Model the fold of this input.
Amino acid sequence: MFKIKSEVQFDMAHYLSGYDGKCSNIHGHRYRLIAKLKSETLHKEGQLRGMVDDFSNFKEALKQIEEEFDHKLIIENNEEGKVLSKKLSELQNNFEISFVNYRPTAEEMSRDIFNRLKSKGLSVCEVELFETPNNSCIYTED
Ligand SMILES: [Zn+2]
Done:
């Protein structure tokens, strides 16, 4: 089995809707995203001969995810989130806010990122998302 991995980091703000504690407040993290692709065999011919995948494809896919989240406020797409987004845009219309259809925990985000990589045709086998230097979530489909 061959596995290749690559990493990107991004800064993102979020809060946890319906949570009793510090994480209910808007706050930010420096996220560290490590993704792995796997293959039993290597490509046998052409441009990808001897590779699991081209690192430049892999890095480009991770860069797109980084750009999706970097320096954004990520809000859960629920009633509270819609009201908050509306109020923030009334204060300043250039806040960059992205909605997600889940509570933006490391667990949900790592699954979302896994599926985004998979939908780009990559042979992703694992996504690890560090929310702090000591805490991460690992998502696989095993
Ligand atoms: Zn947090």
